Amino acid sequence: MSEAPESLQSADILQILELLPHRYPFLLVDRIIEIDGDRSCIGIKNVTFNEPQFAGHFPTRPIFPGVFLIEGMAQTAGAICVASKIAEQAKPKQVFFMTIDKVKFRKPVEPGDRIEYHMRKLNNRRNMWWYKGEAKVDGTLVCEAEVSAMLVME
Questions:
Q1: Based on C-alpha coordinates, what's the Rg of the chain?
Q2: Is 118 an active-site residue?
Q3: CB 87 within 8 A of CB 2
Q4: Is the per-residue pLDDT at 53 higher than 90?
């Protein structure tokens, strides 16, 4: 990735695959838009019925698992943190999800929904980042949380 995070406006799936180690079926963000360095962005996840979690969650009413909403938020924030380090010519070796706080689930997410992970940086110290995330479907808040990540540089 040759662009600095300040000029990176969006990241498609191929760029996300370069930034994150996650792969199917656990990559939970399809695109990232409105990137503002490591300060904020919106991650997009298109929920489809053919995803493996719906076979058991739940067979009579498919619901996107809440923990996947939280993980999608963390992956979205992690991707822009990694992009900011790459711009500094220092690609991290690993990204670790560290904490989850103030989680609230507001409404179920179902196949056919398009989730937007609205991520806003709260703080950054050395190799740690803290973000406030809001997951929305059609503008309606479905989940919110504060998450933190650590980048391992060695």
A1: 15
A2: no
A3: no
A4: yes
**Which of 57, 91, 97, 110 is an active site residue?**
57
Where along the chain do its domains lie? 13-152
The topology (CATH level 3) of 13-152 is: Thiol Ester Dehydrase; Chain A (3.10.129)
- Residues 92 and 54: their CA atoms lie apart, in Å, by 33
Contact between 82 and 88 (Cβ < 8 Å): no
For β-strands 31-36 and 40-46, DSSP reports them as antiparallel
Rounded-to-integer distance, Cα 84 and Cα 8, Å: 10
135-142: Cβ within 8 A, 24+ apart: 135/69, 135/72, 135/73, 135/109, 137/107, 137/109, 137/113, 138/113, 138/114, 140/106, 140/107, 141/106, 141/107, 142/69, 142/105, 142/106, 142/107, 142/108, 142/109, 142/115
- The predicted model scores a pTM of 0.92
What integer pLDDT is reported at residue 4 of this predicted model? 41
Distance, first Cα to last Cα, the chain: 20
pLDDT digits (tens, 9 = 90+) for 27-52: 999 999 999 999 999 999 999 999 99
- As a whole number of angstroms, the distance between CA 143 and CA 145 comes to 7
